[in-house]
Amino acid sequence: MVQLQVVMFGVTLVVAVGVALYAHFSNSRYEQPTNSYSYDDSYPDYPSRPASATQDSNPRRRKRKLSSCTICLTELSSELALRKLRCGHCFHRKCIEHWLGSLGGSCPNCRAPVS
């Protein structure tokens, strides 16, 4: 009987140590590592400037002409009625009127307000 008690004590001890080790290592996996530096210190501060919706600073993009209506994705031609917005983007008149009437009061390409 004494041998059975010793064996049961040994099994209980091994299981308890195993559970304790599992609990210790499984919880430490989710802790955040501590570093001597912070995320904000690793990047220099650059001055920010507000983005303009009506003017593009890249001259390559300003000079580029679109050959298709970005709403219906068909070719722009001089035979169809076109409308050019103040931001410079061109669309089929029917397409842009539908866009402005039902989907919003801004350019579909650059989101510049259309009044």
Q: For the terminal residues, how far apart are their CA atoms? A: 95 Å
CATH homologous superfamily label of the domain at 64-103: Zinc/RING finger domain, C3HC4 (zinc finger)
Supply the helix-strand structural class. mainly alpha
Report the helical percentage.
Answer: 25-40%
Strand order of the largest sheet: 1-2
The protein's oligomeric status is single chain
Strand content bin: 5-15%
pLDDT < 50 stretches: none
| N-to-C order of helices and strands | HHEEH
Mean pLDDT: 75
Shape: rod-shaped
- CATH A-level architecture of the domain at 64-103: 2-Layer Sandwich
Q: Which value, in Å, is the CA radius of gyration? A: 33 Å
Query: Under the CATH scheme, which class of the domain at 64-103?
Result: Alpha Beta
- Main sheet attributes: strand count, strand direction, barrel closure: 2 strands, antiparallel
CATH topology of the domain at 64-103: Herpes Virus-1
Query: Would you count the extended β strands for me?
Result: 2
Q: What is the count of DSSP helices, taking H or I runs of 4+ residues?
A: 3
Biased composition (Low complexity): 36-48
Keywords: Membrane, Transmembrane, Transmembrane helix
Transmembrane segments: 6-25
Region (Disordered): 31-66
